[in-house]
């Protein structure tokens, strides 16, 4: 384009000049970034050259570029929970070149974790999950230099659970938090602490064949500032009833399902961390424009549904939110003082204990009964579990969640026919549903029958007391 | 000529277990509720409890006449809080999704 066209309006000249300035500014930014990188290279020996090669494939994308890569390198990310979500999330974040990675988990590795928690391994069963993941990531991503293993990523290991007492102090030293935990109590706590420390939160969860992902407090603004993104409490002001909360141990989980969600968390984190500071608006997942308060959105994954992915538009900040509104009841002071009881807030599913002592039998007591006295053994686990393992000649009548409908099934199965003759023993996985089923039969008889007994502690106790070969699923 | 409104109702996050283990239900509901008002989502929820839900565990879906905490209601992929909650008046072919939040990890 010529320097100045004769009939160019003043506005057009101004626009052209502004565009030139912007171009120069971009150039300046690149030069500064190169300088910064050289500085780092000088400090770290051959490190920088190595990094161009290592990160080259993501570096050449316009969405990342050198600027984005350097932002990742300066970023500090905390992964809370190093399980099914945290293992893949931490692995991809470390791989992408996040500068500092915090691994926070108070649990130790168990055999039943390994089908999905890919940073742990068989020989590390019993080891702290933070330690175990650290070992994997270090082996995967360190490089040999001057005959010494240099980590590309700095790791902080927090070998304890997140708590109201430790959350603020720890979150303060990070830029971004990933909620990879598995219970509502920690989900509320982590979200509250993110609001109070001004951190964006990438929250994911999974169960069975489904997963959910939400980016919260994006952008992170102080409580009362409606230009901040909503928090977990804005979306879910009340916790779900404890009885409705299923863990992966109870409900089951497919490894690639929770893995998908953990990888998506890493992806959202990379998008958030590598974006230029100036456009720190919720463009990563949300759809807020500059005039209206930013809204969250939830990505839902369902492995056996078509389509597998869908996105829901969620709300903006809640004007009466308990933590992010202008009149919060949850503050730094209340968190620090330990006066907030997240366990009480979310409630606890109370173990069932509804039968008199005389109608309960330990697995050992059942096992030593003579064959003739064993009567009918009714197994109330679901069909899938019954197909995994069952006591010979036991009858499967899955607990339906309700006395009337279960009794109907039991009648159909013919196990209630000999009402007064043979004794009936009821068993389940943990010894809760069996009591409910036993009580259903007792109530049906008008509360008179003594011929129905529950096996205390279910097959879990059965395995501990009677049959160590019983599958420990 | 407004007698019934055809709708797609979906249950996910475990709620499908309460509805015959079926995720997607194509249903149609009366265009007007008992008081001759246009049918809204509040009416739909009552209709689902009375007609579609075979499972006796109503409290896993509705507590004190409102959706239980931990369940999101989506109207055409938007949180119902953006659409007037239970007062949203249903339109033909609306897609209403009930999502139970997951907590595992
Ligand atoms: Zn909030």
Automatic annotation (TrEMBL), chain A:
Plays a central role in 2-thiolation of mcm(5)S(2)U at tRNA wobble positions of cytosolic tRNA(Lys), tRNA(Glu) and tRNA(Gln). Also essential during biosynthesis of the molybdenum cofactor. Acts by mediating the C-terminal thiocarboxylation of sulfur carriers urm1 and mocs2a. Its N-terminus first activates urm1 and mocs2a as acyl-adenylates (-COAMP), then the persulfide sulfur on the catalytic cysteine is transferred to urm1 and mocs2a to form thiocarboxylation (-COSH) of their C-terminus. GO terms for cellular component: cytosol. Pfam families: Rhodanese, ThiF. Pathway: Cofactor biosynthesis; molybdopterin biosynthesis; tRNA modification; 5-methoxycarbonylmethyl-2-thiouridine-tRNA biosynthesis. This is Adenylyltransferase and sulfurtransferase uba4. It comes from Neohortaea acidophila. Gene3D superfamilies: NAD(P)-binding Rossmann-like Domain, Rhodanese-like domain. Zn(2+) binds at residues 231, 234, 321, 324. GO terms for molecular function: ATP binding; metal ion binding; molybdopterin-synthase adenylyltransferase activity; molybdopterin-synthase sulfurtransferase activity; thiosulfate-cyanide sulfurtransferase activity; URM1 activating enzyme activity. Its EC number is 2.7.7.80, 2.8.1.11. PANTHER family: ADENYLYLTRANSFERASE AND SULFURTRANSFERASE MOCS3 (PTHR10953:SF102), UBIQUITIN-ACTIVATING ENZYME E1 (PTHR10953). InterPro entries: MOCS3/Uba4 (IPR028885), Rhodanese-like_dom (IPR001763), Rhodanese-like_dom_sf (IPR036873), ThiF/MoeB/HesA (IPR045886), ThiF_NAD_FAD-bd (IPR000594), Ubiquitin-activating_enz (IPR035985). It is found in: Cytoplasm, Cytosol. The gene is uba4.
From TrEMBL, chain B:
Belongs to the URM1 family. GO terms for biological process: protein urmylation; tRNA thio-modification; tRNA wobble uridine modification. C-terminal thiocarboxylation occurs in 2 steps, it is first acyl-adenylated (-COAMP) via the hesA/moeB/thiF part of UBA4, then thiocarboxylated (-COSH) via the rhodanese domain of UBA4. It holds the Pfam family Urm1. Its main location: cytoplasm. HAMAP family: Urm1 (MF_03048). It comes from Neohortaea acidophila. Acts as a sulfur carrier required for 2-thiolation of mcm(5)S(2)U at tRNA wobble positions of cytosolic tRNA(Lys), tRNA(Glu) and tRNA(Gln). Serves as sulfur donor in tRNA 2-thiolation reaction by being thiocarboxylated (-COSH) at its C-terminus by the MOCS3 homolog UBA4. The sulfur is then transferred to tRNA to form 2-thiolation of mcm(5)S(2)U. Prior mcm(5) tRNA modification by the elongator complex is required for 2-thiolation. Also acts as a ubiquitin-like protein (UBL) that is covalently conjugated via an isopeptide bond to lysine residues of target proteins such as AHP1. The gene is URM1. Pathway: tRNA modification; 5-methoxycarbonylmethyl-2-thiouridine-tRNA biosynthesis. It is found in: Cytoplasm. This is Ubiquitin-related modifier 1. The modification 1-thioglycine is found at residue 105. GO terms for cellular component: cytosol. There is a cross-link at residue 105 (Glycyl lysine isopeptide (Gly-Lys) (interchain with K-? in acceptor proteins)). Keywords: Cytoplasm, Isopeptide bond, tRNA processing, Ubl conjugation pathway. It comes from the Eukaryota. InterPro entries: Beta-grasp_dom_sf, Mopterin_synth/thiamin_S_b, Urm1.
């Amino acid at each position: 384009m010529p320097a100045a066209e004769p009939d160019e309006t003043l506005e057009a000249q101004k626009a052209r000049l502004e565009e030139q300035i912007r171009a120069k500014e971009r150039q300046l930014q690149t030069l500064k970034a190169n300088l910064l990188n050289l500085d780092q290279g000088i400090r770290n020996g051959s490190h920088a050259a190595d990094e161009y090669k290592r990160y080259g494939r993501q570096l050449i994308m316009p969405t990342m570029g050198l600027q984005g890569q350097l932002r990742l390198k300066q970023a500090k990310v905390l992964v809370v929970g190093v399980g099914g979500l945290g293992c893949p999330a931490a692995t991809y974040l470390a791989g992408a070149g996040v500068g500092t990675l915090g691994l926070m988990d108070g649990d130790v590795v168990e055999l039943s974790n390994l089908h999905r928690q890919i940073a742990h391994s068989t020989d590390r069963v019993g080891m702290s999950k933070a330690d175990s993941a650290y070992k994997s990531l270090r082996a995967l991503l360190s490089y040999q230099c001057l005959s010494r293993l240099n980590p590309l990523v700095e790791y902080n290991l927090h070998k304890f659970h997140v708590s109201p007492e430790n959350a603020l102090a720890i979150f303060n030293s990070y830029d971004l938090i990933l909620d990879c935990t598995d219970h509502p109590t920690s989900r509320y706590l982590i979200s509250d602490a993110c609001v109070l420390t001004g951190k964006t939160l990438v929250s994911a969860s999974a169960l069975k064949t489904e997963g959910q992902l939400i980016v919260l407090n994006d952008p992170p603004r102080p409580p009362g500032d409606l230009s901040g993104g909503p928090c977990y409490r804005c979306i879910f002001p009340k916790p779900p009833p404890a009885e409705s909360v299923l863990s992966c141990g109870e409900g089951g989980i497919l490894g690639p399902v929770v893995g998908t969600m953990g990888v998506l968390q890493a992806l959202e984190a990379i998008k958030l961390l590598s974006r230029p500071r100036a456009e720190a608006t919720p463009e990563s997942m949300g759809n807020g424009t500059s005039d209206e308060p930013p809204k969250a959105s939830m990505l839902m994954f369902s492995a056996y549904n078509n389509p597998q992915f869908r996105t829901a538009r969620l709300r903006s900040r809640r004007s009466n939110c308990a933590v992010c509104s202008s009149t919060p009841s949850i503050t730094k002071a209340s968190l620090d003082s330990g006066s907030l009881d997240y366990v009480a807030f979310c409630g606890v599913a109370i173990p069932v204990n509804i039968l008199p002592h005389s109608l309960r039998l330990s697995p050992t007591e059942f096992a030593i009964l003579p064959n003739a006295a064993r009567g009918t053994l009714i197994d109330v686990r679901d069909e899938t579990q019954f197909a995994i393992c069952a006591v010979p000649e036991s009858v499967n009548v899955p607990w339906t969640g309700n006395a009337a409908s279960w009794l109907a099934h039991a009648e159909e199965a013919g196990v209630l026919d000999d009402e007064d003759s043979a004794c009936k023993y009821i068993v389940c996985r943990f010894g809760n549903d069996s009591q409910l089923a036993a009580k259903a039969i007792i109530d049906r008889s008008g509360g008179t029958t003594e011929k129905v007994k529950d096996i205390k502690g279910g097959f879990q106790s059965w395995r501990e007391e009677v049959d160590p070969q019983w599958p420990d699923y | 000529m407004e007698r019934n409104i055809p709708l797609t109702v979906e249950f996910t996050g475990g709620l499908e277990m309460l509805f015959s283990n079926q995720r997607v239900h194509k249903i149609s509901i009366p265009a007007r509720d008992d008081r001759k008002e246009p049918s809204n989502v509040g009416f739909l929820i009552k209709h689902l409890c009375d007609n579609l839900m075979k499972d006796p565990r109503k409290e896993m879906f509705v507590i004190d006449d409102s959706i239980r905490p931990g369940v999101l209601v989506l109207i055409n992929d938007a949180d119902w809080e953006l659409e007037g909650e239970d007062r949203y008046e249903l339109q033909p072919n609306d897609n209403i999704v009930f999502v139970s939040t997951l907590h595992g990890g």
